[in-house]
## 1
Amino acid sequence: MVDPVTMFREGGPFMYIILIVAVFAMAIAFERLFYIVFRANINSTAFMAQIQKLIMANNIDRAIKLCNAEPHAALPKVVKAGLTRANRTEKEIENAIDEATLEVGPLINKRTAYLSMLANIATLTGLLGTILGLIQAFNAVAVASAEMKQQLLAQGISVAMFTTAGGLMAAIPTLILHSVISNRSNKILDDVDQYGLKTVNLLTARRRGTLKEDAAAGA
């Protein structure tokens, strides 16, 4: 097995581009994972169970404090937007929830799209290095002297193979991380949509005075 140092040295100048792309991709991926897993994420089912109990007990202030306890999580931000307008009309509550949902969406998906772009750049850079390496090898066969032909041919093939391998080694983990991050982000946004609507229904039923009847019917 070829060691990475030899691979990087013999792969030619395109290996530097691939390395820079890989560093940027990993930095974005791990920053996104940290944000999504440890900051924006929350146990949505448990959180909404507590919020529902507090709304049914008409303890809106306590419900808002519960949201404030998770200032970075996406769902509490959306629920809080509805709770702060709990005494207004159904349309105003719904608009507040929708507005907050539109605000958290870009925060969840921020920079994620760059990962697929960087994976493509790494792959295409490796392909470009492969083509230029093969051109170098063919030129060696065509014009080099007999004593230099074998050395130049080997150099051209090394550039071709190592840039291909380097591009794929950068692209494959980047695409895997992109898929993981996208799935996690979609799960959070699905919870925001689902429980945002539930918050609207709970607060609307509270204003109509039918909260307990609606909860019993839902059970």
Note: The longest helix spans residues 146-208.
## 2
Amino acid sequence: MITKTRAIVLGTTRYLGNLILVKLYSENKGQGMYVHKSSRKNHSAFVLLNLLEIITEDKDNRSLQKLKETSVLNSFEAIYRNPEKSAIALFVAELIAKVVKEEEGNQPLFDFLVHSIERLNSSESNTKTFHLFFLLELCQFAGFYPFGNYTSEDSIFDLREGRFCSTYPPHPLIIVTGK
């Protein structure tokens, strides 16, 4: 079956001369490995975190699918001209590859990833804390985002329950904020 979708490049590996293995997170299929015939012309498409439009030849009985065509939708060049942004991009790509193991489409997660990469690319100001906010927002998709109930009275964060409370819980897994 031939499928057309958007995908984010999470990593590449050379394979048997002119072939490359590409780890992608796609809009329709989630994370997967693809094989593609490499040439000088299309090798620049597989830069880390590039947003691609891909056409694949999917076969249900294979874990390694074949890329028929690729085109770059957004190359996020500003990331790789700045060493600080480049380091953050490497961390983010590795984090996505290790944490997001879905093998089916998740449109809200895909949109979040694309928006985050665009924000990193276009940011002119301080990016030193980008990865921390990215991790916090990614927690929502992993299912353990803390409740947003912080007040000056509820200033003890219960790590077990994932919420702020006003009294100490019966266990030591807490973070005391404020005062």
Note: The mean pLDDT is 85.
## 3
Amino acid sequence: MKNKLDQSFFDKDALTLARDLLGCALVHESEAGRTAGVVVETEAYHQSDEASHSYRGKTKHTGIMFGPAGHAYVYFTYGMHWCFNVVADEAGVGAAVLIRALEPVEGIELMKRRRGRTQVKDLCSGPSKLVQAMGIQKEHYGKPLFDDEVYFLPRSNKKIE
């Protein structure tokens, strides 16, 4: 796909990336089908923030948060939910952007099956909900987000192509 965001788009501090991702589309091409949603809520994390997983330094679990930018940081929380983040900033800095909510725009029937919900507003209205609806899994940890499976498209008023 020629208009995917490339790695250079993600090479910025987490606060800037969090703003710049708003309005972009997250796409997942899976064997089950293609799903996509427009990013409507984000949250930036930096290693200087006590709430950040990178605050205590680089570990096996948080290593990807320290670069390179534009890769997926997927983690399990509360013993039951997965969350999806986009690594930001320069290599060596622990920073990422949590994707908190999407507006579903493609693959809605697949999202409904994955979530066991019928209302579109219930599909991607939270970090773990969107991971389930989009079919993002722990295997996506560390994967580039400018590749062929999970990627972002730039802001657009047009239909996702």
Note: DSSP finds four helices and six strands in the chain.
## 4
Amino acid sequence: NAYNAELVQALGDVFDELGKDASVRIVVIRGNGPHFQAGADLKWLRQVGTLNAKENLTTSYRTASLVRTLDEFPVPTIALIHGACIGGGTGIACACDLVIASDDATFAISEARWGAIASIILPQLNAAIGVRNVRRYAITCEKFGAIKAQTMGLVHEIAPLGKLDEVAEPLIDAILKCGPKAVSATKYWSQRAGERLDDEMFDILVDVHANCRQS
């Protein structure tokens, strides 16, 4: 599942359609084949690099918009990771609400290895594993396994090889037992509340809390 224009377009189209379907309660993302996402298509990267500035900006904008759409998607998203999860794949994982990784999974923030930069997924990376870890792994581009990813906060649960669905099932069931509007609102406000509470956000969160109860 190489990261290229075709993959970005396909994922964008899917989320556009899912966003129009009010019956959608959960989105599960998984890789088809031996890897979740094996990194950038280097041939494609070289081709894009030969385009003019406007075309390069458009390509970056489309990719950044996809990750942002996933990050802000109104229903819970679950990534089931097996095999390699490299570069943009790690960004996709960090943009999901829950991440379950097979014990064979390997991760990397590999853009700098190819002379690129992961700037458009840095907000998601920072939120998932913290700036300190990003500063290490985005600079060294070293690979790390599922246990390390769980320690850093990227992975929530580790599944034995071939058991991703079994581990995911109770989490999916737990989400489906909750009020869908309350889940969406919780996701929305958890991303905006921040870690430091000023007076303005305090008042906003109190208001949201009271209004939700009345519905």
Note: The mean pLDDT is 93.
